[in-house]
Every structure is written in C-alpha cells, then in structure tokens.
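Reply to dn_fold:

You asked what the input looked like. This is it:
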Amino acid sequence: MNLKAKNLFKTLALALSVSLLAPLANKVSAQDVNIQAPEIIGEASITMDIDTGEVIYSKNADLKLSPASTTKLMTALLFAENKNKTDILNFTDTSLKVTETALNNYVALKPGDKISAEDTMKAVLIFSANDAAYLMAESVGGTVDNFVNMMNEKAAELGLKDTHFENPSGLEIDPLNPSNTNVNQTTAYDLAKIGIAAFKNDWVKDTVSPKNGKTSITLSGYPIEIESRNKILGKYNNVGGKTGTEELAGHCFVGFFEKDGRNLVTVVLKSDYGATGLHVFEDTEKVANYSYSAEKQTYKNSGDEVGSIDLTYKTFRFFGTEKQITAPIYLNEDVQYYKNDFNDKNATISYNGEIKDAWKLSGNKEVTLTYSTPGYSQDVNGTIKVSAMELIKANLPLYLLSLLILVIVLVLVVLVIRIINTRKRKRRRRYY
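and this is what came back:
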C-alpha cells in the first residue's frame, strides 16, 4: 500500500470513529447537565422559589401528612398580622395547661404573668414553646377554637386545598382535648406556601433568623436564653427555618435559603429523627443544593400540539346560526420547566384569551397561551389552527342552499321588474 493510500485509509477511519462516538459524547454531556435529583429519607419534600412560586424539586409534595410544630409558622403569621411587638400578653389558665415543650417547665408561671409579644414570637419560633403558641391563639382569637378557625380561613385565603388545622401548636395529642384524635394535616406544597407567606412578614422573618442561633426572652423578670433548633442555621445558605417532631409526623423542617439573589423555601416532612437528630437537616441540605444547581428542561417543543379549544362562530360571520368547532392549539416556542413529579402531574398549557370567535382567530393568528403549575404561570406564544376555508367547508351545503335561494330570489325580482315594465309600456301605448 503506497503512502497516499495509507493516508486516505487513516482519514476514513478517523472520520468513521468520530461519527460513531459523537452521539455518545453528546449523551454524556447531556447527562452531566441534568443533575440527578437527590434521594432523601423524608417521605415528602419540596423546594419552591419564594419570588416566582416555581416548584424546583418535589417528592410526594401533595401527600397529606402531620406537620408537627411547623404548624407554628401559620400561628406566628396570624399573630404578626394582629399584634405589635410591644403588646403585653398575660398567661392564662388555658395556656398553662400545656406542659409539653413549654416555658412553664423552666419558670414557675402562674395566670396573669406577663410576656411581651416580641418574646412570645421568639418563644414560639425559636424554642417552639407550645404554651406560648396557645397564648398566641387566645390573644388573637379570644379563644383557641376561634383562632383555629382563623388558621383554616387563612389557609383557604392562600388557596391551600389540602390543609386543615386542629390546634395552633402541631401537637398530635391536644392537651386541651386529649380525646380529639384528629391531627393537623397539610402537604409539602401547602406548607411551602405557608412558609413563604410567613417569611414575607418581616417580624416572622427576623425571628426565625436569630444571630448565632441564640436569643433571650424575659419571663417574670428573669432573662432566659433560648437556642434555635435549626441545626443548619448559617450553613449551606440557610437563613432560617422551623422544625417539628411528633410521632406521626416524624422529623420535619421548613427552611429558608438565600444565595446569589435567589430565595428558596424547602420543606421536608416525615424524615427519621435518627441517633443524632440530623437526618431532616441532611435531607434539607441535599434538596437545597440540588435546587440551586438545577436547570430547566424542555417541557414542550415549538410546533407541539398542546391541546384543543372549543370555538363558536356564526355561519355567516356576523349573523346566522351559532355553531361550535374544536380547534387544536400549537406552540410557537419551546417551553422550559423544572422537571419533577409535581410539575409533571400539574403542568398545563392553555388558551385563556377573551376572543373565542373562530372567524376572528382564523388564519392561524398568533395568540398568547399560558403555561401554569399551581402557584406559577407564564405567557408563551402559540397558534390556534383554524382556517376560514375550514369553516366554509363545514357549512358548504348551507352556503350552496343559501346561494341557490339567493339566485332564485334575484331571478324572481328580475321577472317581476320585467312584468312591471311591460305593463307600463302597454299603458303608454293605450294612452297615445
């Protein structure tokens, strides 16, 4: 084999190798870009963008579970909306009946003892004091039952369909009514929405973010130092959160994160407490890190048919019998989203425009469609494919019949005019 033939053979071999390996290289790079969602111990979890409402990560986010003391985010939100930091509260017989994780276990309190609203907020969100949560409820609602009704009304106001509260603390055995076997219920999605609403309240936000994880309150004239139960405060971009632990609920945590101008809320429900009590925080670290790194993927491509819509129209455009036609909807651009089980289940693309007249939309005119998931929506460009010719074909027999009738009427009119003119001429002749 001469030199030229050898060079030609090498070139062909190289080209063949490149063509065979290129798809594999593309596949590898695509896998590198799409970071795998983490495996966590928690039974349900979610990450939501606080500013946009987008769901970035999800695991069973619509599963109803007990939220334990993360309930106190709703309690604290209502308290912040109805009280001032300088208000003074008096401990009551009712609040002092609560002894599990309570302030009155550390200081001998009696009915009438005072505490500021600011310290009450710290006690509830940092120490997770249950007696202080009931004190909040009475101070705002008059009675605990009235306050619980307010909690459920607030949940409805926030559009939460899978949340129901029985008490203001999250305890699964109500100390005021031990025979009540019902517990607070929510989902990771709903709890994230509650967390966002609470975090947007400055009083709540400042309280769940204590410097160095510690602060102090004053009870009966005695200063008491309390420490946050949030074990990742100040780590992994975490700026605050609320824990919860109960038998049915397991270990729960709602975390707030800030990094590079992006604000996220994470929820982990029913994680194991574990020997160290850190599993829920390890779960949270995983989902938070993933959520900051995750990139959007293509949900639907430009040119994809994404649904249909029923349009109405009048047979003769401006008059006639009103009819209906179903037209397909197509995208004119790619739509990106965070791929997860919640978005895959709930994402929709629809046309919500006011114009539903088929004649006005004919000619494949571009329209604005809406991509939406619960809590988030964006406008995208699309086309409703309906043509004037399609409408004409659908009514062709009617149009032909109408044309025939019109022709007959015109012929009759012409004949009548001729008859009239003929009679007029005959009359003139007689006259002369």
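The two ends are 120 Å apart (CA to CA).
Hope that clears it up.
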